[in-house]
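Protocol step 4 of 5: obtain the predicted structure for the target chain.
Materials: sequence only (see below). No template structures provided, no constraints applied. The aim of this step is simply to have a reference model before the mutagenesis design in step 5. Sequence pasted as it appears in the construct record:
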Amino acid sequence: MLALLILACVVGGALQRVTGMGFGLVAGPFIVLLVGPLEGVLLVNLVGAGSALLILARVSRGVDWRRYAWLATGSVTASVPAALLLRQASGPVLEATVGLVVVLAMTLALVTSRLAGSERRFRTEARPPLLLTGLASGFGSVAAGVGGPPLAVYAVLDRWDTLRFAATAQPFFLTNAVAAIVAKLVFTDASFPALSAWEWAAIAVAAAAGIGLGELLAPRLSREATRRVLVVLAYAGGVATLVRGLAGSFA
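Step 4 output (structure tokens):
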């Protein structure tokens, strides 16, 4: 199990560095499959926060702090209500939720990317769309460790510069993950996986190695190739998690 966790963290960290997002989408479903829904999502939040912090050190000059502030406000506001709603959910239900959120969110992002092909520019620069995006991302992060798709949808509709988006996403994901962790530890029975110190260290090294790998791959991979890999892995992990959760619910 540890070897698979390490592999998920390496792949997720690399995609996070290359695309600006993707750790929760790609690594999240597989981590939930390996350690369970409650512990798995907390682990995704924790490693995702650490990855975002490491990447932020590299891209901080490109952060749009005004947009970050409104996005983070929505995310933090959603964290406690989301935790309270999920408090009574069973393990299989949470597991199915993780998979369903990933599949639906990725599908929405793909549909939205097609809308962006038109000449019309969507007016999303105002505060309400930023707050709504933050709210949706905050709920997804608490429920499934997946906060990226709403932000990706906003970025597509707004035609947000990709470099500015990737930079601004990092402090937002950091805030999003920390808020989700605090809310779940305080308002639910969730706890971190029972791993030894050396296993935690191995996961931390794997996440850092993934970011380093992404640093090397970023200039060598086209955006389209990276996007295709992200979509395939996210769908595979999401469907697998959804099926196992449904199987457990009806067992």
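Step 4 remarks: The mean pLDDT is 85. The longest helix spans residues 223-250.
Proceed to step 5.
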